Amino acid sequence: MLLKLLVTLVVLATATFALSESESASATTFPDPLPLTGPFFFVHDPSLVQRESDGKYFLFTTHDKAGIITATNLEGPWTEVGSILPNNSTIQLPGRDDIWAPDVSFHHDQYYAYYAVSTFGSQNSAIGLATSRTMEPGTWVDHGLVFNSTTGDAFNAIDPNLSIDEKGKPVLSFGSFWDDIFQLSLTDNLTAVTSAPIGVSFNSTLPNPEEGAFIWKHDEFYYLFISSGLCCGFNASALPPPGNEYKVFVGRSHSARGPFLDKDGVDMRQTGGTLVLGSHGNVYAPGGQVIFTDRKTGKDVFVYHYVPAIDSPAPFDDEFSSLGLNGIDWSSGWPVLTEL
Ligand SMILES: *[C@@H]1O[C@H](CO)[C@@H](O)[C@H](O)[C@H]1NC(C)=O
Ligand SMILES: *[C@@H]1O[C@H](CO)[C@@H](O)[C@H](O)[C@H]1NC(C)=O
Ligand SMILES: *[C@@H]1O[C@H](CO)[C@@H](O)[C@H](O)[C@H]1NC(C)=O
Ligand SMILES: *[C@@H]1O[C@H](CO)[C@@H](O)[C@H](O)[C@H]1NC(C)=O
Ligand SMILES: *[C@@H]1O[C@H](CO)[C@@H](O)[C@H](O)[C@H]1NC(C)=O
Ligand SMILES: *[C@@H]1O[C@H](CO)[C@@H](O)[C@H](O)[C@H]1NC(C)=O
Ligand SMILES: *[C@@H]1O[C@H](CO)[C@@H](O)[C@H](O)[C@H]1NC(C)=O
Question: Which residues constitute the signal peptide according to the record (predicted)?
Fold first, then answer.
């Protein structure tokens, strides 16, 4: 136990040193996430939705068959109440009993949850859809396959995010590694695909580590956020080189379909991206990000998961992946995180 703590501290010191060397030019600092009350709960690839009828917060996570966690205050306590698909996905692929990255949004008087069926490192993947009128456990109806990928495709059909473009048409962003982030057009009833995938973001540096895309409209721009780097499976005594763990980049466009350019005008298809959030303090490998507007306060909230680097029974162990909540200052036209 002591030995482990010592090793962790040494690694932490090394990591901090390397970071301060490579990032001193930009002197980037990030605010800490909102402190939460109540017992620990696991979150990875969060989706956070406030119920239309009563403002209750519903948080959805990878694993636990797309776990549902609810609260009446953002600070918590958060309660694990069940799963979207307790009986597994109807999609007949490996991973149907452990679905990932549920993406929930409200359309046509119901909640749509796009989810991913896959296994780690595989392109034998699919995006599925379930719907519910209340988001409560036991109310989700599985509609099964929306889109899939197989070995040899340029893309991996996971990490879906639905958005509505400037013409009112649904567009599904998705992707993970290989040629990174793509978009598909959907039918107006949101259940089927009507186009081939089109690439919108690509990191040319191996291992081309972009995933977790989502699009958010603010004022006249559509912002494409991605998670870049390694999400999981960290070993506290052999962390990846600093900066190769998860972090969040953004680019923006006048169209939900891109092209998305970063602050320096670099196209995200050419490894562009402006850093929004990276590791700092207790926050390691933040990503899986989304935004929602809190109807209680009118504030936009930046929602993500991170692996606790210090404040954890097992620092850097992604089994303790936690919820991060911050505010957003949009005044520069680019999202800058604030305390909440
Ligand atoms: C879900 O999948 C698991 C693992 O394959 C299996 O044990 C379980 O019986 C399945 N549940 C249902 C309801 O089919
Ligand atoms: C997907 O994007 C929509 C808005 O475009 C947002 O409301 C929703 O939270 C996003 N969900 C995820 C999981 O990215
Ligand atoms: C899961 O399957 C059981 C047994 O078939 C059924 O009673 C239950 O309603 C199902 N749950 C959901 C959420 O579909
Ligand atoms: C996945 O897509 C391929 C064609 O791209 C198709 O042949 C295959 O049947 C699909 N798999 C599933 C599970 O739908
Ligand atoms: C959705 O719309 C498409 C055509 O736009 C149709 O083929 C399909 O049956 C519809 N699905 C549902 C569930 O209504
Ligand atoms: C973690 O890394 C150390 C140092 O490289 C290695 O000795 C150990 O076996 C690794 N642990 C696991 C679980 O892979
Ligand atoms: C591209 O990938 C490299 C290697 O993981 C990483 O260092 C870099 O930050 C990434 N850049 C973007 C914009 O994703």
Answer: 1-18
